Here is the input.
Amino acid sequence: MFALEPEGRLLFAASDARGGLALWVSDGTETGTRMVGDIAPGARSSNPWIISRSGDAVFVGADDGIHGFELWRLSVRLLDDITPPTVKCPADVTAEAVGSLGAPVTYEGASASDDLTPKPTLAYSHAPGSVFPIGKTRVGVVARDGAGNLLLGWMSARRRRASSSRPRGA
Ligand SMILES: [Ca+2]
Here is the structure.
């Protein structure tokens, strides 16, 4: 256990079926007690070990299940951030194929904003400029803030056959 003063929070390792042994924070209330991120996703345990604090940073040793036991840095300011970013997806895009194959579709990227992270990161299931097959493709957009809160948004890109390749009536 590790007391955060003057914030009046307690950091500790706890285990539940959903997150394995993970890092938790509590302000002493039920609603204020929750897992901090999930360093080792799913039920895998990250076995966190709280080392020290320096200013806004808390240093934690933890195993994400991929890279072994490593040092992680948490922002105390971001511990209170449980609100995911909002994401604004561009309008659906329709582009014309060249011939019968798919072709790159360029679209304006999404934008995200967050209550505490100035620039949330954005990741796409199909990046702008990817080759899309003919037909409608759903594009997932994930916005992530500095505290690891995620929001998934969707947009669509439709690639239709080039008009000159459409079969004409006999
Ligand atoms: Ca946030």
The chain has two domains: 2-79, 86-165.
